[in-house]
């Protein structure tokens, strides 16, 4: 099949039909704007499909749906999957980390092969629906590479998947409130990423004008920037989060407040904070379990993690030590106690 590298008009429906009828092997990569779709094929059958727009958010969404029927897919498992494999996506150390995440879930017996195949089919329908809305871009057929070495859980009929995805796309287009607008725009181009997360409240305090002022030969600038610390606060209580934010109301800190330990956890991975304040008692995923998961991630092996709790018993402190927490801050605390703990671990 011809490979086009310059942007041109595309008909993904026709392109996929050709690949199916020719029993193609390899990976079809389609690029449009900043988005890349990857369709892995073997003898014209679909092995896996993904795109570059938040693949782990898509995977997590489908895993949450499956968790209603599969009790092994608890919140902690889904968080661990993202901690292990999403960093590969950001570093581009692996071409298909979301597929490897599914393989890991099967290997660890959180999913069986049939469940993995069902998951892959649901993901593929969503990805193909997005691809079928593309009108212009480039494509190329490349070698499957590392996918050949990974387990294969299914070989799905590409034509059937495309037909279902196309019908779903048509239904969405026909139900659009403004047909003119829908026609003029890319009907299923991935939406831009939201700048804010409802589960994350961020307070970025700019440094003073004096500290930001650039002067020739200012050798202190790097030192000034370095002394602005990023602190992530994970707590399901808005009252506690607001209190911490108020206590750390200083130009030295950039405070990120997170009230959902599961859905907003990957914000911590992206932020790479200098220090994490972590509540112990939270729904779905308690602080000790979350701390343990963070410590397994290479990015957070040495990041200070301070447990924040109203429990003062010996057993609670032993648990904190067991999960390698850096410190233990007891509620209620005042500003002086919080600052003392923060500077102890940032100094």
Task: List the keywords.
alpha/beta; Rossmann fold; single chain; six-stranded antiparallel β-sheet; 20% strand; 12 strands; elongated; six-stranded mixed β-sheet; 347 residues
Radius of gyration equals 24 Å
* Quantity of strands, as a count: 12
Strand content: 15-25%
Low-confidence stretches: 178-225
Distance between the termini: 59 Å
Protein described:
- This protein folds into 2 domains: 181 residues, no CATH class; 135 residues, Response regulator (Rossmann fold), CATH 3.40.50.2300.
- Helices cover 44% and strands 20% of the residues.
- The chain is built from 14 helices and 12 strands.
- The strands form 2 sheets. A 6-stranded antiparallel sheet has the order 1-5-2-3-4-6. A 6-stranded mixed sheet has the order 7-9-8-10-11-12, with helices on both faces.
- Helix 12 links the parallel strand 10 and strand 11.
């Amino acid at each position: 099949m011809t490979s086009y590298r310059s942007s041109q008009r595309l008909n993904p429906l026709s392109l996929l039909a050709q690949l199916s009828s020719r029993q193609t092997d390899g990976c079809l990569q389609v690029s449009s704007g900043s988005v890349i779709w990857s369709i892995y094929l073997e003898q014209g059958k679909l092995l896996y499909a993904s795109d570059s727009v938040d693949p782990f958010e898509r995977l997590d969404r489908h895993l949450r749906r499956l968790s209603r029927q599969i009790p092994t897919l608890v919140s902690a498992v889904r968080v661990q999957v993202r901690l292990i494999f999403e960093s590969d996506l950001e570093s581009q150390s692996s071409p298909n980390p979301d597929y490897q995440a599914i393989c890991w879930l099967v290997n660890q017996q959180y999913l069986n092969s049939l469940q993995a195949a069902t998951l892959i089919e649901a993901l593929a329908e969503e990805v193909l629906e997005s691809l079928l809305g593309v009108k212009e871009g480039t494509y190329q057929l490349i070698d499957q590479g590392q996918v050949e070495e990974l387990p294969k859980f299914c070989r799905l009929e590409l034509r059937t998947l495309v037909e279902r995805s196309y019908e779903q796309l048509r239904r969405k287009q026909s139900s659009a409130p403004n047909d003119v607008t829908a026609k003029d725009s890319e009907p299923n181009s991935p939406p831009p990423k939201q700048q804010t997360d409802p589960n994350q409240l961020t307070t970025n305090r700019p440094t003073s004008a004096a500290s930001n002022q650039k002067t020739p030969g200012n050798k202190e600038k790097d030192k000034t920037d370095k002394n602005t610390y990023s602190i992530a606060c994970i707590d399901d209580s808005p009252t506690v989060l607001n209190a911490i934010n108020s206590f750390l109301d200083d130009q030295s800190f950039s405070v990120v407040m997170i009230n959902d330990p599961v859905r907003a956890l990957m914000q911590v991975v992206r932020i790479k904070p200098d220090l994490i304040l972590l509540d112990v008692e939270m729904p779905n995923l308690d602080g000790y379990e979350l701390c343990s998961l963070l410590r397994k991630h290479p990015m957070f092996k040495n990041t200070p993690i301070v447990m924040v709790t109203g429990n003062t018993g010996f057993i609670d402190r032993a648990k904190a030590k067991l999960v390698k927490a850096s410190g233990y801050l007891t509620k209620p605390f005042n500003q002086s106690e919080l600052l003392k703990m923060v500077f102890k671990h940032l100094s």
